[in-house]
Amino acid sequence: MHFNLLFPSAICAAMLSVSTYAGDTHDPNRTATIYLHGFDPDGADLDGVFGEDMQEELLGVIGDMAGLPLLEDGEAMNSVAATTYYGDIPPSYYTAADIAELETVTEAWGGGMPRYGLIAAKYARHVMDRTGATQVNIVSVSMGTYVARWMIEHDSDGLASDGKIARWLSLEGVLSGNWAASNELVSDLFDIFGTPTIDVDQMHYGWCEANMNSPRTEMDNALYGDILVGMEVSSRDTDGTLTDIMLLKGDFHANDDVVTIDDAYFLTTTSQSHFLGHEPTRTYFHVNHYELAEHTPAMAQVASFLTGQRRVKIELTQAQIEDINEPDDPWWDFTPAEIVFTSSVVSPQAQANWGITEPMCNRPADGVSAPIHEVGGNGDSVQPNQLVYDDFVAPGETVLHVTVGAVEIDDDLRYDVWEPLIGDGWDELGEDTITVDVSTPGIHTRSIDAPDFNGTIRVEVIDYPFAELNDTLPGDVDGDGVVGVNDLLAIIAAWGPCSGCSEDITGDGVVDVNDLLAGLAAWTG
């Protein structure tokens, strides 16, 4: 065999394959994950170094459930890492140009989201430089979502326009401003008893409208088109203070004690913002703002979003109310009935993987996360087109257990319904649980048959062209977490029959030019 002829020609051929591979994105084996924390009342004035690695308990949970390594345990390409955007001292990896750029942005805006977004973007590039990752995922919580939105829409450090953001998942995020920060009564109380801060000022709806996309609740930016975007929202207001203030103001929104659901996801999206033609995922959990991090179903959905390939969308498209549960009174017309549809989804695979029996998406009536539908009488139909589930599922998931129910609201100020003559609370119209097949891509419908209503759900299963998460990096022959010169030399040294050896990347029992090409295509440096 003439290596002196074969090797140069193989190199040339492989360079062509590398340029083709460069178009491949969203590979969980080559994508680092960056966690962005939430609001700290004293954060804007904190001293210390920003943009450095930060210890965060949630990282371990995400890493364990997703099968991803932590950056602190070694610098693998798909490491999970966290940083803080608070502080006044630049990290050691900043150049003079980095410092000058950040000072310019801070002076122009006074700090806040523009400053934090640039810090987060530069940290993401720093992690990619250290690990050899080709892209990053962003997992943001609470105000960290506001930072991430600024970073993407304003293309901080060119991160989004360079195609370096693969996935962005917001966890009960301040996405389009914050109701409390935009309400004079609440913000005045915060100024009196808390710490006035630029962070709160910039979470005002007016600032968001003026400096993010307008309208602030719409996702409309071409930079989103290359990013898989998802949102987890929560609906349990255990404290009740925010709800009481909203009711006092006559402006109730479902909330988790801190963030309203309407502020935590994009209410509308445009086609240029859709990744592969689809809107962002959205998952509901009935927990409060501080419970989500410890809610195992929510963390399992984070894992599936970061590494999964199969997305399932379930929607209640039609419902007929057989009995509206309103009195037939000759002296008073209690129609239309105010109907709310509830839903929950349980994953058998999540139970097998993590022992999770709680819903992976949950919209109970008490969460007020589903809209009211007015129904005129018995037998009337409505088209709710209401989301039941929209997220990625764990590998191996073949079915989901879907429960759809309905209630007729009699008295609940959060729903703006008050019918004191016929009782309080709401009347149950029953529910139905069915097992839905999600084993094959495509669209199908299923029927719901509850005691007082029936309906139809639409199920869409979508497979994304993402690589599977592997325990080992393809082409990493020596197992050091990168594909480089040593791996190519090992392939050449093992040339010939070599069944089962790590140098046989293609798995055909022979180490040859195809393995060399595969190694070069997987090159990370």
Task: Summarize the structure in short.
By secondary structure, the protein is an alpha/beta fold. It has helices at 3-21, 57-66, 96-109, 113-131, 143-153, 179-182, 184-193, 198-202, 205-211, 241-249, 296-307, 348-354, 485-493, 513-521, and strands spanning 31-36, 80-83, 135-141, 165-171, 218-219, 228-234, 268-269, 281-285, 310-321, 337-346, 361-363, 372-375, 381-382, 386-392, 399-412, 417-418, 425-437, 442-449, 453-463, 496-497, 510-511.
Structure description:
The protein has 525 residues and is α/β, with parallel strands linked by helices. It has three domains: 3-9 and 470-521, Type 1 dockerin domain, CATH 1.10.1330; 27-175 and 217-236 and 256-307, 3-Layer(aba) Sandwich (Rossmann fold), CATH 3.40.50; 313-463, Immunoglobulin-like. The protein is built from 14 helices and 21 strands. The chain has a six-stranded parallel sheet, with helices on both faces. Strands 10, 11, 12, 15, 16 and 17 form a six-stranded antiparallel sheet that branches. Helix 2 links the parallel strand 1 and strand 2 (80-83). Helix 2 packs across helix 11, helix 3 (96-109) packs antiparallel against helix 4 and helix 13 packs antiparallel against helix 14.
Give a short account of the largest sheet: 6 strands, parallel
CATH topology of the largest domain: Rossmann fold
Beta content: 15-25%
User: Helix tally?
Assistant: 14
| CATH class group of the largest domain | Alpha Beta
Percent range of helical residues: 25-40%
Rg: 26 Å
**Order of adjacent strands in the largest pleated sheet:** 2-1-3-4-6-8
Backbone structural class? alpha/beta
CATH architecture of the largest domain: 3-Layer(aba) Sandwich
Distance between the termini: 28 Å
